[in-house]
Amino acid sequence: MEHGENNITVVDENGNEQLCEILFTFDSDKFNKSYVLYYPMSAEDDEEEIEIHASSFTPSEDNKDGELAPIETEEEWDLVEEMLNTFLDQEEAEEE
Predict the structure, then answer these.
(1) Cystine design at 36: which of 53, 57, 77, 84 (Cβ 3.0–4.6 Å)?
(2) CA distance 85 to 19
(3) Residues 55, 7: contact at Cβ < 8 Å?
(4) Quick one: pLDDT at residue 3?
(5) What dihedral do alpha carbons 66, 71, 27, 4 form, nearest 10°?
(6) Are 59 and 29 in contact (CB under 8 A)?
(7) What is the pLDDT of residues 55-94, one digit of tens each?
(8) To which protein family does this belong (predicted)?
């Protein structure tokens, strides 16, 4: 994974690259991991709901790129969902 300020390039299992916008990142002391929530930039053009992806994230030593890994446990998914709901609630409150 390579990343800029708000974008990352995600390479899927078939070697296809996809530019994604980072929605937000957060760290979890409980799991001792960092997480990133993102969506494909091509989805911005669609009028349908945007599919948000989440992965755990291990930054490289120089913070220029890093490794994405799948979220492995139901507890981690619960945490990610809770953080996403909080983020969306804050976004909605700011728009009002």
Answers:
(1) 57
(2) 24
(3) no
(4) 46
(5) 30
(6) no
(7) 998 877 766 667 889 998 999 999 999 999 999 898 888 8
(8) Belongs to the UPF0473 family.
Task: Please give the Cα distance from 45 to 40 (Å, whole number).
Answer: 10
Sign of CA dihedral 90, 84, 62, 3: negative
Q: Are 23 and 52 in contact (CB under 8 A)?
A: yes
> What whole-number distance in Å separates Cα of residue 93 and Cα of residue 86?
11
Q: Are 44 and 31 in contact (CB under 8 A)?
A: no
- Burial annotation 46-61 (CB, 10 A radius, 16+ → b, else e): eeeeeebbbbbbeeee
Continuous H helices in 1-96: 74-95
Phi-psi region of 93 (alpha: psi -120 to 50; beta: other; left: phi over 0): alpha
Tokens of 86: 């909080």
